[in-house]
Amino acid sequence: MELTIYHYLLLSTILFSLGIIGVLTRRNILIILMSVELMLNSANLLLIAFSHYIQNATGMIFVLFTMTVAAAEVGVGLAIIVTIFRNKETIDVGKMNLLKW
Amino acid sequence: MQYAVLLILFPLIGVIINGFFGRKLPEKVVGWLASLLIGASFVVALSLAVQLAGIPSDVATEPAHGGHADAMHEDVIHAESTHDAGAVAAEELSHDSHEPAATEVHGEVESHEAMVDAHGEAEAQDVHGGCEGCEVSHPSVNVRHSRWLEIPVFTWIHVGDLDLGFTILVDPLSVVMMLVVTGISFLIHIYSIGYMAGDPRFRLFFVYLNLFVFFMLILVSGNSFPVLFIGWEGVGLCSYLLIGFWWGDMSKATAGMKAFIVNRIGDFGMLVAMFLLFHHLGTLTFQGVFEGAAAKWGADIGAPAITAITLMLLMGATGKSAQIPLYVWLPDAMAGPTPVSALIHAATMVTAGVYMIARSSVLFALAPAGMTTVAVVGALTAIFAATIGIKQFDIKKVLAYSTVSQLGYMVMACGVGAFTAGIFHLMTHAFFKALLFLGSGAVIHTMHGALHHVHDHHTDPQDMRNMGGLKKYIPLTYWLFVVATLAIAGIPGFSGFFSKDKILEMAFMMGTAEGLNPGNFLPYALGLIAAVITAFYMFRLVYLTFHGDYKGPKGSAEGLHESPPVMTMPLVVLAFLAVVGGYVGLPRVLSHVNHFENWLYPVFAPANRILDVVAHQVHAIPPGQAFHAFPHPEPWLEWVLIGVSVVAALVGISIAFTMYIKKGLVGEPDEKQAGFGKVLWQKYYIDEVYDALVIRPLIGICRFSWRIIDAAIIDGGMVLGTAKAVHWVGGGLRRVQTGVVSNYALMLVAGVLLVLVLFMFR
To answer: Looking at beta carbons, which residues of chain B come within 8 Å of A24?
Structure first.
């Protein structure tokens, strides 16, 4: 069986859905962050797949940028989480509800 | 003539100096400065009058006897040919080309007299022949004449088609008004120096007085309705300020407000009249309006538009000149200082309505229904106010109702087409009524001094029931007062007699001219009865005040003193005028020339010509023979009319003499008033009626608007309601903000899904 573009699409969709489910269902903020990364990477996978499929390198270059941004984002995100943990001694999102009515 | 602007500027200078820089000046300086500036205005007015008289009139005045019909036509055509022979010729051609005689006009303007005779006869024949279908003479009007001078000062409004200049109009009518206004004002200013001495707001009083004269002069010298209206509103403002001059007393402040508000009703009429005039004629200058109106409605006499305009103008006049139904403010206006009553509420401002009607004589002439209304309103006011005057005890209230009544005479005169007589009475009335008021002011001043002498602050110094026998204490004031009383009562030899007699004569002649229907004599009859009553209440006033025994508080008689010369000297001058003022307009049977009538003749010639045409259209009177053009009764009839007027005056006086000297009646105290006398004493309860019919419903509507519409619906429902709705909705929606990140993420995903679905099913 040869791998076609459809297989990449399917894998990417599965990964993205897993990411969404992770973000929506988990209460641990670290896992939510990881799920977000999963979603980002599913998008990266799709970019590379299409880039290869249409024989255009733009998508691959874009992926490099995305990974850079993701790295920065994780840095900032983890720093925030550390600060929250120092203040509230928890990383449960259900307990971080200060900004409500 | 450019210096005419000084006439208006002098009082304004007084306002500026005394108003802005007069704080440190002593009383005497302020008073004399204000007075002398008005005196300077009077000199300017006098010089304008002399200069105007020096210009030969191009509207021929009437000949002494006979030849009326021809002369009348000669006047008008003569006037037109002098100004613009060519244009007039063309106009004549278009109007009268079917008449062979008329065509000759265009060839030889010089020999117009012979031709005019033919013209007049041809026209007369048309009418006598009963030619129904042929063209009736169409009154073309030329308002301008050689004594109509317009002195532009500056351009005021220049918008679209409207080009209004602030322009001074100097013509015989405005000059008469200027002389009366500045002359009387000058005397009253001097009097006020004595009367107001020691008042803490002495300076302000003179500022207001000067401001009043300033606006009054604008009113009488404007050359257009809007300029007249500036003065009209300005004098209203000054009237308000001066009635409520002693506003510490609530009733005086209220009287000022009443005058102001009632006048606004009249001003509404004036404004509507101006809007209508502009709508129909596109101009508002006197010349443009009168000539335009004559051209537009000359062939359609009594058209609804012109009738509406004249009725609206009349509404304005009823407000300012205190006629039924808006007269109620004037008696209350006596709350002001007495010089104000004399100047504003007797001699000058209240005559503005009469002046305005006389000035608009052309418009009124075009609307017979308007004229009749004016005559009826005037006659009714004359008798109505006179009857109220019978039972008043406040010396100034009697004079106030007398003023309303005399203004009624003037308005009635205008209504019967006797504009000259109306203005004549306006002038003589200004003299004797100013004298009466200033005299009453001197009496009040004296009484005040006497009451002060015994430290009595409760007795009313204006109530005639507290006076009596003052003749022996203040003889000079007494004799001056008697002169004015004789003048207003209409005793021959005094000014009031000549003018009142002229009005009654004209009212009578209107009755005869329009057929011997008794209804036509209504103005005359009412005027005659009013004359009897006038003589009665004036002599009642004199007898109660000056004759009999002094009825003031014990011991106060020693405090009765004659007023200072600064107050009595103006009275002497006014008394002189009240006597001789009438001799400028002697009746026809006594003199060949009526100077006053000749002087004003060019002003009212256009209106008289229209009235002549109206008379011949409506009443089938041959042109030129209508009474309006030459309203002269036969000499025997004139003697009879004079005799009747004199008898009327004597009857009134003898009734007063019988009641108050022979029977020695004195005024009943308030609680003893009964019967019809009480109704008169309570002024027919008109104030109460207005209170019930107008003021209370108005307050009810206001209360409804305030409580229901404003407070409940607008404030409660719309303003606060909106806020409450937003508050309520927001209160519900803010629950969405849970602060839980997962919920936001869920929303976000839901949103994305929604967008996706929308894209898929597009």
So the answer is: 742, 745-746, 749
Closest CA to B82 of B118, B55, B110: B110
* pLDDT per position as a tens digit, B474-531: 999 999 999 999 999 999 989 999 999 989 988 888 777 666 667 778 888 999 999 9
* Tokens found for residue A80: 């925030």
Question: Residue B138 contacts by C-beta under 8 Å, 6 or more apart in sequence?
Answer: B95, B298, B299, B613
Sequence-distant (≥ 6) Cβ neighbours of residue B202 within 8 angstroms: B27, B30, B31, B196
The single-letter code of the amino acid at B282 is G
Amino acid at B490: G
Contact call for B739 and A100, based on CB within 8 A? yes
**Of residues B737, B738, B746, nearest to A24 (C-beta):** B746
Does A93 lie at the interface with B, CB-CB under 8 angstroms? yes
Residue B1 near residue B149, CB atoms below 8 Å: yes
- Give B644's contacts (C-beta < 8 A, 6+ positions apart): B504, B528
Picking from B522, B503, B333, B353, the residue whose alpha carbon sits closest to that of residue B419 is B503
**Chain A residues 2-61 within an 8 A CB cutoff of chain B:** 20, 23-24, 27, 32
Q: Does A81 touch chain B (CB under 8 A)?
A: no
User: One-letter amino acid identity for A36?
Assistant: V
* Of residues B737, B741, B746, nearest to A96 (C-beta): B741
CA B558 remoteness from chain centre: 42
Please say whether the beta carbons of B627 and B513 come within 8 A.
Answer: yes
Please tell me which residue of chain B has the smallest CA distance to A17: B749
Its ipTM equals 0.85
CB of B426 within 8 A of CB of B562?
no
Which chain A positions have a beta carbon within 8 Å of B745's beta carbon? 23-24
